[in-house]
Amino acid sequence: MTTTGSPLTADSPVGTAFALGEDDWLVPSFREQPALLVHGTAPDAILQYAKGMEEGTEIPDGEGALPPAIPVGSQPLHAAGIGWGEALQDRENVAITYFGDGATSEGDVYEAMNFAGVYGAQTVFVCQNNRYAISTGIEKQTATETFAQKAIAAGIDCVQVDGNDVLGVYRVAREAVEKARNGEPVLIEALTYRRSMHTTSDDPSAYRESEEESEWEARDPILRFQRYLEDRGILDEETKEAIAERIEEELASAIDEANERREELDPADMFRHVYEDLPPELERQLAAFEAEKGGEGE
Length: 298
Description:
Helix 4 runs parallel beside helix 5. The chain has ten helices and seven strands. 35% of the residues are buried. The protein is α/β, with parallel strands linked by helices. 43% of the residues lie in helices and 11% in strands.
């Protein structure tokens, strides 16, 4: 099963990431690849992670982006800790973290916001409300009117924004980042929609209507921003073709780099660097693995 984030939830990660400074921290879940790209993570590093290579989780010097967090709702705790650490060292850097509406039901998320509020952690929390926690609609997730107001119990500021409006998200995020630099953590609720399936084993038609999907299709944030640029004469067909060509070239290059890096690795390393002394069972597995590799002539 492959977990995916809808490409149409990209505006909130992109808009917020552009509001960060070079030395700020980005603490993602598994769907913030657009934000990572904006903040400076190399495309081939993202692909290495997707290929199961631990090298894809390395944090390059000066980049300030943590590896994706897979356990739902765990990453806000990391961001609160980083934000507090920056405050303790009298630095202005902030940490921004992302999670979905479903993650707000996890105790970790509230604990992170509560901690940030008590200790003045320099942290911005971004809830991407795409209306469904897998197949569970928001009306069955919470009785609150908004997810933003969950921050009130933690004593921190909150704001709700149209998550499909990249410029609106950017403006709200800039204000939130500046507050966080002053020790005032903020929760941003970005209203958006997951148009695609949640995972490759998911069937959205089992829990939502096609009319709803069509309604949100008209709010596609990518096409929306494209029309905005076209209306102002900033984007034309020639520019769009050039952008598409550049993306294809960069993606092809990143795929080649990730594949080359993978070829340099010894898959037997998965047995090493876990225990100081390899347990007998893993010793036997390693020997069998090496024997099988040898039989294949690798």
